[in-house]
Amino acid sequence: MTIRRLPRAWSGRALAAGLGLALLAGGCASPQVDRVVLLPGREGRPTGGVSVRTPQGERVLDQPLAEARVARDGAITPGTAKADEVQARYGALLAAQPPRARLWTVYFETGSNQMAAGSDATLDEVRQALAGYPGGELVLIGHTDRVGQLEDNDRLSLQRAKALKDRLVAAGFAEQQMQVVGRGEREPLVATPDETAEPRNRRVDIKLR
Q1: φ and ψ at 114, to 5 degrees?
Q2: Any residues with CB less than 8 A from the CB of 71 and at least 6 apart, and which?
Q3: What is the Cα–Cα distance from 162 to 110, expressed in whole angstroms?
Q4: How far apart are CA 72 and CA 66, in angstroms?
Q5: Phi and psi at residue 179, in whole multiples of 5°?
Q6: Which CA distances in Å does 111 have to 22, 53, 105, 159?
Q7: CA atoms of 120 and 71, how far apart (whole Å)
Q8: 1 exposure class (CB count in 10 Å sphere: 0-12, 13-18, 19+)
Q9: What is the 3-state secondary structure (H, E, C) of the chain?
Q10: What is the pLDDT of residues 55-73, one digit of tens each?
Q11: Residues in CB range of 194: below 8 A, 6 or more apart
Q12: Which domains does the chain have, with CATH numbers?
């Protein structure tokens, strides 16, 4: 049996929040059946999808609590799991999952690594969250708008991520807890033509995991 994640197009400020997937083997009436359940995301929303494939066929799970039961001969039986039954049977397994990543965004002035007005409030939230998350890691992902040359924007996006890191280090947080990445103009929040100044694309996305 093969289980493959399906791509999902994310919108707005969300970065990929993860796929809630549990492979629940041997939990059915017959010990010769594997069970795959797509767990719901926050507030029961869809979390993407998975493809379950065997020599007998393929089944796509793309709705919360959709399930596939796979027999030893590869036959796939689709269905829908009950939330209370999943919780009762596999509650300990679900509780052992790491907490979901938390996300923030800090914006920057045009052509510089100077943070835009209002950034301090966001940084305060990040500091508070990181202080209560011992062992957590921050990933700082710098971006630019499409004004300027590609190579220059690659450098600027990394400078923005490093500037944010320096602020957090100065506030007393360990440098080894942070990773900086520059994406340049390649991953805009708002799609624009070339040489368009878009404030929402001049940013650093912050992911605490």
Answers
A1: -85, 125
A2: 30, 32, 33, 77
A3: 16
A4: 20
A5: -125, 130
A6: 45, 49, 18, 11
A7: 55
A8: middle
A9: CEEEEECCCCCCCCCCCCCCEEEEECCCCCCCEEEEEECCCHHHCCCCEEEEEECCEEEEECCCCEEEEEECCCCEEEEECCHHHHHHHHHHHHHCCCCCCEEEEEEECCCCCCECCCHHHHHHHHHHHHHCCCCCCEEEEECCCCCCCHHHHHHHHHHHHHHHHHHHHHCCCCHHHEEEEECCCCCCCCCCCCCCCCHHHCEEEEEEC
A10: 989 988 888 888 898 998 9
A11: 146
A12: 2-95 (no CATH), 102-208 (3.30.1330.60)
Residue 4 — very low, low, confident or very high, per pLDDT cuts 50/70/90?
low
Please state, in angstroms and rounded to a whole number, the distance separating the CA atoms of residues 14 and 206.
Answer: 11
What CA–CA distance (Å, rounded) separates 20 from 64?
9
- pLDDT tens per residue, range 118-170: 999 999 999 888 887 777 889 999 999 999 999 999 999 999 999 999 999 99
